[in-house]
């Protein structure tokens, strides 16, 4: 397929682009950063610069695609003014999806977020009703990032009602890569009492990229929402024990797939996509949360 990947210079988009190329797809990498006039590296994707909040540029980027992976976004609400986050993230999603509908693109992969549940960046802190959290859990976003991601999922619902398009919204947990495991997850490995809005959940960026490829190739009808999280928690803690120690009985504990389960369930992604993550924090950190020699 010819796959357009937006946000291709970001953490998620860059990994997805590489795995899509490795899977034999043609990729157009779209981002807001300026291109350079150089002879392309062997095997590099075609690069197209676009500000996706502008509808015309979004249409130009999407034309000719067989599938779109929409990863472009301001990644959290803390580094920009609220209206900037909301306007950028929602309008870019609207424009790219609208272009896909108008050009008859049959597949659309929307990179949403675990933040839609409302446990992250909240002005009034809230807790999950139950754990592990799954796709049936109520949605209660407060901040502009999570609200825009939630509205993006609703745009997918509307798209499948009005067009012949299949949409998958992936909600990744906290995305990690080779260079940030110790900084991000090291404290959780060493001390389970550390604040963990995602209930000690995480996902390796390469496992997320594998899920994105499966989603782009999927023939699932309609619009499905899938959490993408590692099956184990950061630190390998006994989940039932640390949940009770940290939150008492304020979060209902539901059946676990394993003692060291993540606080977010990936069972639906495994069932519908056949996705099986291959990587763990244990590949990068020792039992004290320090980086292993590479």
UniProtKB/TrEMBL annotation:
The lineage of its organism: Bacteria, Bacillati, Actinomycetota, Actinomycetes, Streptosporangiales. Transmembrane segments: none annotated. Pfam families: Epimerase. InterPro entries: Epimerase_deHydtase (IPR001509), Lipid_A_modif_metabolic_enz (IPR050177), NAD(P)-bd_dom_sf (IPR036291). This is NAD-dependent epimerase. Residues 3-218 form the NAD-dependent epimerase/dehydratase domain.
């Amino acid at each position: 397929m010819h796959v357009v990947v937006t946000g291709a210079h970001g953490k998620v988009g860059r990994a997805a682009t590489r795995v899509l190329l490795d899977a034999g797809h043609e990729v157009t990498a779209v981002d807001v950063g300026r291109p350079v006039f150089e002879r392309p590296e062997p095997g590099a994707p075609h690069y197209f610069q676009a500000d996706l909040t502008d509808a015309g540029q979004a249409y130009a980027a999407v034309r000719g695609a067989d599938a779109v992976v929409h990863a472009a976004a301001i990644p959290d609400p803390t580094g920009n003014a609220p209206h900037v986050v909301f306007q950028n993230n929602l309008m870019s999603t609207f424009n790219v999806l609208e272009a896909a509908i108008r050009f008859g693109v049959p597949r659309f992969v929307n990179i949403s977020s675990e933040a839609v549940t409302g446990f992250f960046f909240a002005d009034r802190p809230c807790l999950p009703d139950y754990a592990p959290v799954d796709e049936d859990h109520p949605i209660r976003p407060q901040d502009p990032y999570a609200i825009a991601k939630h509205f993006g999922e609703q745009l997918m619902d509307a798209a499948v009602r009005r067009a012949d398009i299949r949409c998958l919204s992936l909600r990744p947990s906290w995305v990690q890569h080779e260079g940030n495991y110790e900084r991000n997850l090291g404290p959780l490995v060493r001390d389970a009492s550390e604040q963990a809005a995602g209930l000690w959940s995480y996902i390796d960026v390469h496992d997320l990229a594998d899920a994105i490829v499966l989603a782009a190739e999927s023939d699932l009808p309609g619009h499905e929402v899938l959490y993408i999280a590692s099956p184990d928690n950061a630190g390998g803690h006994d989940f039932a024990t640390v949940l009770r120690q940290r939150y008492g009985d304020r979060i209902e504990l539901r059946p676990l797939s394993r003692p060291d389960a993540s606080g977010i369930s990936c069972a639906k992604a495994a069932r519908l996509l056949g996705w099986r993550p291959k990587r763990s924090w244990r590949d990068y950190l020792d039992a004290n949360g320090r980086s292993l020699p590479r």
